[in-house]
Amino acid sequence: MVRPFAGVIISTADGDPTDRKLRGFANLSWSDVGQITGTSWFSHLETSSAFAYRDYACPARLGTPVSGSATTTGYIGATPLRPNSPGAVTTPQNIGVGVLGTTAGGAACAHDVTNVFNSRMGQNSHLGIITTYSNPGTLVVPIGVKTFPLKGHEITGWYVYRGMLDSSLLEVAFAPQLQGRKIDKGIYHEVGGYWQWTLNPYFDIRLAGSAALAADGWIDVGRLADCNTGTGVSNCDAKNVALRGEARFRARF
């Protein structure tokens, strides 16, 4: 048996991050698990970091912004830099590099665990409020196929594209570094799959893996950082492939 699948998930963006109207769609107003893969319609994508598994880390997360008076306190992906703080690179709207949402550049840069929407980007972009409603919108396109070659065996493969609908949020946050340049809307491309062997109703084995490559928008963000840990400045190229694999042995009683 062969079952192809395809889908499109779209959610609105906060088109103007400098105003008081938060129009970015999110299923919750705070950062939390969305459990979209907890339903049978999406469960075959539960190991995809591009779809709804724990997201990949921010690009060049250990680098500092390339221009301005930034110091090592201004990690891309760190908490927001407030005015007059060491290393602060601000805009007139005071949306800092903390727009990428994760603390100290950790994992899950764009979305939370099992949450398909880009809810993490922009959470910290407005002073005095932390909300998922300030985000660049979401465009997620999964396509793939589920096959059942033998009884108890399932082989599933997929391609997932993740992007933004409006990159204005990042362009305002990194305006001093961009100097008028634009950020593309693409985040990354991922291919992956798994083989699952269900021996009986109580026990199964699954081998899964995926590979992701930064799209143009994530390359634009990565190049804003300094990847040279020594003296001098060297822009990050954001060309490394993110690899992930797992072996799961599960018993259910």
Q: What topology emerges from the helices and strands here?
A:
Elements lengths: L1 E5 L2 E3 L52 E2 L72 E10 L5 E11 L4 H6 L1 H4 L7 E15 L2 E12 L1 H7 L2 E2 L15 E10 L2
Antiparallel strand pairs: 1-4, 2-4, 3-8, 4-5, 5-6, 6-7, 7-9
Number of discrete helical segments: 3
Total domain modules: 1
Distance between the termini: 28 Å
The largest pleated sheet is described as: 7 strands, antiparallel
Structural category is mainly beta
Tell me the total number of β-strands: 9
Overall average pLDDT = 82
Computed over alpha carbons, the radius of gyration is: 19 Å
Strand content: 25-35%
Helix content: under 10%
- Characterize the overall form: globular
Order of helices and strands: EEEEEHHEEHEE
Low-confidence stretches: 67-92
Write out key terms for the chains shown.
7% helix; 3 helices; seven-stranded antiparallel sheet; mainly beta; two-stranded antiparallel sheet; 253 residues
